[in-house]
Structure formats: C-alpha cells, structure tokens
Amino acid sequence: MRYGVNYVPRRGWFHAWHDLDPAEIAEDLDAVVALGADHVRIFPLWPLLQPARTLIRPRAVQDVLTVVDLAGERGLGVVVDGLQGHLSGFDFLPTWVTQWRRRNIFTEPDVVEAQRQLLTTLAEAVSDRPAVIGMTVGNETGQFAGEWHPERYPATPAQMGEWLTGHLVALRSGDPGLQRVTVHSFDDDAWFADSCPVRPDHATALGDVTTVHSWVFGRAAATLGEAHPDLAYFADYLVQLAVAWSPDPNRKVWLQEIGAPQPSAGEPADFLRRSLDAVLDNPALWGVTWWCSHDVSPDLPDFRPLEYTLGLIDTEGVTKPIGEAFAEVGARIREGIEPRPRTRALVIPTGTTRQEMAPGGTLFARWVSERKEGPIGLVMGDRAGDATYLVTAGVTDLVEV
Amino acid sequence: MRYGVNYVPRRGWFHAWHDLDPAEIAEDLDAVVALGADHVRIFPLWPLLQPARTLIRPRAVQDVLTVVDLAGERGLGVVVDGLQGHLSGFDFLPTWVTQWRRRNIFTEPDVVEAQRQLLTTLAEAVSDRPAVIGMTVGNETGQFAGEWHPERYPATPAQMGEWLTGHLVALRSGDPGLQRVTVHSFDDDAWFADSCPVRPDHATALGDVTTVHSWVFGRAAATLGEAHPDLAYFADYLVQLAVAWSPDPNRKVWLQEIGAPQPSAGEPADFLRRSLDAVLDNPALWGVTWWCSHDVSPDLPDFRPLEYTLGLIDTEGVTKPIGEAFAEVGARIREGIEPRPRTRALVIPTGTTRQEMAPGGTLFARWVSERKEGPIGLVMGDRAGDATYLVTAGVTDLVEV
Prior knowledge:
The structure is a homodimer of 401-residue chains. Chain A has 401 residues and is of the alpha/beta class. Chain A contains 14 helices and 13 strands. In chain A, the strands form three sheets. Chain A has an eight-stranded parallel sheet. The first copy, chain A, has a three-stranded parallel sheet with strand order 12-11-13. In chain A, strands 4-5 form a two-stranded antiparallel sheet.
C-alpha cells in the first residue's frame, strides 16, 4: 500500500521548473518525508520539456532527474507524470499546438508521435533510477477533450483509446522489466459524463492499475451539500465504481488524487481522516496520493479560491492540522490496516448510464445510505449472475437498488 | 539612419531563450557585426518572462540584459521588443491568458496592468544600458486581434488605441530622458484591412516614429505575381503611406521589418538591393531593420516554408549571397546616401478605404507605375489643398489618380 503526496513546490508552484532550485526542492521534500509519505507524484511542464515539436530540452529532462534524485536520496518513491498539460485549472501547451498553430493533440499523427517521443525520452531517462516507481501519461489529459473546455481538442472515444494505448507503450519503453506502475489519469467525467471520450473501459483496461481522482467540489458537494459528512464516502464510491467497471475484480485501484477543497469538503483534517478511513481497508486499493504537499501562495493570482489551501504544508513551510492528520494516518498504515473485503455489493442495474451513476442519481444515494452501515461494493448488473466473477470478487451478498 | 537586423538565434530559434548560451549568442552577434549592421532588434518570450500574472522571472530579465550587453560590447545598438507574443507564425502566450484561463489580453484591466508591469520592468532593467536605442511594445501585437486569427482576442479600435498608449507610457518609464525610440508594431493589415483594430492613426500618432513591416508574400505578390520586379517598390509604398497618414509630414518612418520571402520575393540578394535602393533615399526613413539575421534550422518543424530561408546567414553560420548584398548596402549607407525629397506626390482620393489602398487597388497600381519613373510620395486628398502642409512636406507637384 503506497501512501504519498502530489508534490506542489512551495515557492513558485509549478513555475518552479523554470528556475529549478535544488536546495528549495530538497527543503520541500524533507517536509514531505517528515509527514510520513513514501512517495511523491511530480509534474514537469510540457512547454518547457518540448518547446518545438522536435526539440526536447536536455536541461528540462535533467531537471526532472534532479527532482527524482533529490526524492530518491530521501527514500521517497517518485511517480513522474509526462504531459502537463492541465494543472489546477491552468493549461500548459507548447506553442506548436496552440493559437495560430492550433493542432489537435489527440488525433494529428505527427503531434501524437512527438508526444510519444517525449514520453519515451522521459521514461528512458529515469530507467536507471530505482526511485521511480511509476509513470503517468499526464495529469487528467482528457480535460483537453472536455465538452466544457473553451478551446478543446475533440476526440472520439476510439481516438482517445488509441491515443492512451500508444502513450502507455511509449512510457513502458523505458521500463523493460515492467518494474514500474504505468498508468493514465483523468477526472471523474470518465465515470459520470456520458459524453466524456475517456470511458470507464479505458480507465479499467489501459495501464497497470485504475486511477481515480476524487474531488468533492463538483457533483458530490452539489448533491449532498457543502461540508456534508457523507462526502467522506465519495472516494470509496469512486474506488468501488472502478472495481465494478473492470472485468477483473482484482484489478487494483490507485486513489491518485484526493484533496480537501474548501469550503466543499468541510474541516480539512476531519475530511482527510474520514475519507481515508472509508477507503484504506478496501482490498482493491493500490495506494493513496494526497493532493497536495504545499499550499499555493496567495502571491500567485488567478487560481480558483479552493486551489490555494489544498496543501498539507502552508506557504511558510509549516505543517497544517491536515498535514498532522495525514501523518497520523500514515503511522496507522505502517502499523498495518486489516483489509475488509467488500462482501456485500450493490447491483448497478444494466443499462445505467454514466450520468445516472453520478452523485445526484439514485445509485449514489442508495450506495451512500448502505455505506454508512458498513463496507459495500458495486457490481455491474450483467455480472450479478456470474458466479465465477462473484467468487473472484469475493462478493457473497448482492443488494438490489 | 539606422541599419540593422532582426536577430534570430542561429541555434534553437527563439527557443534559445530557454537555455541562453552567451557563447552562442556572442558568435551570432559577431556574425551580425561582420555584416555591417549597427543594431539588432531582439525578441524575448512573454511566457518565459512572466509565467504567472504577478511573477516576472528575474532570470529571464537577466537573460535579456545578457544579450543586450553582448551586443553592446560589440558596438551594436539594441531594440528590445516586449510582448512576444507573435513570432513567425507562432504565438507565445502565458498560461494565465490561454485555454481554460482564457482572458482578453487587450481589454481585461488586470491582464493589461500585468503586461505594463512587465514592460516597465524590462524598460527599467535596460535603463542603464546605453546600447539600448529603442523599445517596441511587442512584435505585431495586433495579430492577436486579427479577424483571421482562429483564437483571437477581440478589441475595438478605441480599445486598441488605449492599450497601445498605456503600454508606450510603461516603456518610457524606464527612459526618463527619452533617449530611446519607443514604438509599437503591427502588420500591414493596419494599412490595408478596414476591419483591423490597429488603425493608421494609431500607427502615426502613437510612439516616436511610425513602424512599417514590409512583407510581399501576401497581397503584393498575389497582385503583381511571384518574383515580380515591381515588388521591390512595396516597402517604399508602405513608407509613403505611413507618411501620408501622419498629420506631421516630417514624422519619421522605421522600416522595422523587411525580408525576402521565397518564392514571392524572387532572387533574395537582388530583392534586397532593389528594395533598399527604392527606399534608402527617402527623407522620411528613420532606419531599416532586415528580417532576419539567421535562417531557421530545418530541424525545427511546423514553420511555413518561407520562414526557413529568410536569414542573411545560413544555419551553418555562413553568410549567404543576400548577406553579402546587405553588407554592400551597409557600406554605401556609411559612405552617405543623398536624400531625394519626394516632391511629387500622388493624391489619395478622399474616402479611399484601407482596402482600396492595398495592392490590388487602383491607387497602388498607379503609384507603382509612377514610382518606376522616379520617387513619388502620397498625399491624403483632404490635405491636397493645404498649402502649409504641402510646403512642410516638401511636395510641389501633385498627381491625381
């Protein structure tokens, strides 16, 4: 069970990559180690790595290695995300795909090939770094295809599947022994928006584990209400959905992002404890990576308000109460948490749409109601009669909606 | 009379700013000096200077100073352009105004204020560098408001005028003795497209001199034909138009960009000689800045074909025949070129639209026809009866279309 943080540099946010200061990064990582994290997920910026289609900057790649090595020296594992891409409401795209040179990043062959060159370069650069425990195609890359995006790059589900598949191959080129966990990531539109070209089958079939990003500020808080105590079950719901969509009920799920956005999540330390309590004993869980290490400085404008206070550590470098809560949970994980198999499972009626699985639908309401009584999984209706599946999944008790 | 080049780094094009190598820049500038140029115009990149709205990177500003000082040590003057912005078909915009964070760069007060902070910072940083002979708001900033731009930021002419006026004030904040030439720049849509929010009165009223960018690959070559010998008069036509639009007929005009795009311009060295012959004796001319110093490497993809071969020096650092022609013309300038006042002037009929002044219209055709016989200026119809204006302009002979 992996337990770590998404690393946001304390000084300069991700703009810190422009002028990487190893001493400042080291100080940040020392603080992360002090919280009991065993890994960090890091986010280099695409325009800095690849300012022209055929120009991958050696120094930018070296900067990634510098952060990897600083983490490795401290005993931290590292997950390197490739294409950022999208971070906290900001999009980082190189000039050769934007504005006057606009090109579809999902469908134009030479653009896609260039991205794969970058991923291969990164993957091979870190291949001799055992600290690197994983790689992600990029952070929520599908956001660029989102219907709501003002300047989206349209992609069909088939195109998205091809894009992700090839990108995962590129990442594995630097990992011939398949020692690392290689994944892609996406926001919860993949689970809840019927129009989202990243589909649940992409989530559960591509990559070594299924990732979920649990953010309550959207649908969940709109449905349950701000700071509602049941919001702490949302992460476990996403994990269970990820299990249910997979043909292999034992495929692992990585809670790759979860944070305590204000005011949606309510009191942050309490939200962290209760959210993790709800999910840590889930046998499906590969690991948890909290968002995020450090608060964003109010000196940096233009973020949504909620983005400023997501850190475990404040802008002065002081651990916040939620950081102490994170450390306490980490101590319990190291002592060992007994898995509690989800032997009970709610059946998702066949034909339920993604939209109908979202908070606001009867499925979510019923699941939360059951979940408050104890652990409960989810099973797709068309598998509810499949005895082999149920045995493999460890499900003995089906509950109808 | 200033005679210089727009400086395009030989290695890495403008991406060279990411990893500025003073030795490489020095080598490039030595080659520019060897061509007899007396100045360079340089183009730092906005996203590198100001990655967040309130974050101006000291190192990026220092990089500008490094290039300024390397040029100054070689006796070159430097013109620093602030907001790039647009360069050779690529747009460089920071993440805080693009995509999901899209904000209008011309009209949103805090965005505009941030741009002015950057311009002020640059202007003040170079204030103790006598090598800096000028500053430009940015390279063809109006392109972002162009109707043809796929993701334009709309601005009315009034908004554009306010934007430019305030930005020029910001640039002058670093030049209290007004020693530098402070200007804005734009493409020829300002002269030829009725919809262009950068208007001729912005061109001729704002900034210390009027700039013109002379590119024949568009309207001129489409009208006259590729490689037509009369294309060599196009720069002089633009200079004359800039003179005609100004209430002050003695306002100077800077031919800030002129290049020999292939195949439109025909044989490059010949095009350079003939274009400069046509304009260098124009008393209105403040100076000429050729586009550009160095060819773009074919290793960098995605440019329009014409962009690769605009240099005076090739990608190996060897001076091209057009570079030798540039040097010859420079030697003649240093010997002194006798100005030839444009005592004859074609009258632009009152009510002529910008579109009607473009190549393709009768005005341009008639002017070219006259120009082949000898120097000829342009006078606005509503000034053709203004004796004071004509005396001031040195016009003694009006020609009706």
